[in-house]
Amino acid sequence: METVKPKKQRRYLRSRITRKLILDSATEIFIAEGYAKTTVEKISCKAGVGYGTVFSHYRGKNDILSNIVDRILYNFFDYQRKPDVIGDKEVVSNHYKELLTSLFQLLLEHRLILKVYHDATSESETVSAHWDSIIQRLIDDFSTSFKDYQEKGVMRDFDVRIGAKAFVLLVDSYLWEVVNEREDDIEVIANNVVDIMFQGLYVFGIIEIHKTAVKNT
Q1: CA atoms of 89 and 198, how far apart (whole Å)
Q2: Among the residues of 38-159, which ranges form H helices?
Q3: Which DSSP helix (H) or strand (E) runs through 181?
Q4: The pTM is what?
Q5: Tell me: the pLDDT tens digits for 142-157?
Q6: For the domain with range 65-215, which CATH number is right: 1.20.120.1460, 1.10.357.10, 3.40.50.2300, 3.40.50.2000?
Q7: What is the rounded CA–CA span in Å between residue 85 and residue 150?
Q8: pLDDT for 1
Q9: Which among 42, 58, 104, 199 could bridge 186 via Cys, Cβ 3.0 to 4.6 Å?
Q10: What is the helix (H) or strand (E) element at residue 18, kind and residue range?
Q11: 69: helix, strand or coil
Q12: CATH entry 1.10.10.60 includes domain 1-58
C-alpha cells in the first residue's frame, strides 16, 4: 500500500512544475505583448493549463509578474546573504563592487522582462508595492551589514539605516538606467557607486578625526 508521503511529494513536484510553466509562459507573453495587453487568459492558453489553475497558484497577472522578478533576483539575494567579507576598507570595497556588478549583469540578462516590470510599477499599485518591498529588504540587509562592519571597526560610526537607504536608492536609480539601456558599462557604474559610498563613509570620517586632532592641539 502506497504511503501518504510519496503522494504529497508527487503533488508538490507537480505544483512546482505547473508554477514554473505558468511563469515561463507568462514571461513570453509579457515580453511579446507588454504589461497592459497581457491577461491571465492568454497566460493560461500559452501554458496549456486551465484558467482556474492559474488562479490556484497565483492571485493574478500582477502576482505572476512579481514572482517572475522574485525568481530572477533569488540568486542575488542568496549571494548577498552569505557571511560578510572580513578585511580592510579595500577588501570590503571590492566585495561590494563585485556584488553590484553581479546584480547589473543579472539585469542585462533579463532586461526585456524587467522593462515590462518597470512599466508595470507605474501602472499597478500592487507591482509598485512589490518593488518597494524589495527596496526595503535591501535596506534592511545592508543596514545589518553596515552595523556589522562598524562593530569590526571597518566603518566609522553613522546611522546605518540612513547610510543603507542612501546607498540602496542610489543603486536603484542606476538599476533602471541599465534596464532601460541608458547605461551599459556596468563595471564603471558599480565601481563609481561603491566609491561614492566609501568616500562618504571613510574619507569624511578621516576628515573628522583630523579636525578633532587639530582642535585638541
Answers
A1: 8
A2: 40-47, 51-57, 61-80, 89-109, 111-123, 125-151
A3: none
A4: 0.84
A5: 999 889 888 888 777 8
A6: 1.10.357.10
A7: 13
A8: 44
A9: 104
A10: helix 4-37
A11: helix
A12: yes
Place of cell 549583469: 105
| End-to-end Cα distance, the chain | 87
Q: Look-up: residue for cell 511579446?
A: 32
Domain residue ranges of the chain, discontinuous segments joined by +? 1-58, 65-215
Query: In angstroms, rounded to a whole number, what is the distance separating the alpha carbons of residues 27 and 37?
Result: 13
- Distance, in Å, from the CA atom of 25 to the CA atom of 53, rounded to the nearest integer, reads 14
List the grid coordinates of 102: 553581479
| 14 CB burial (10 A radius; 0-12, 13-18, 19+) | exposed
Q: Rounded CA gap, 45 and 52, in Å? A: 12
User: Which cell numbers hold the place of 145?
Assistant: 551589514
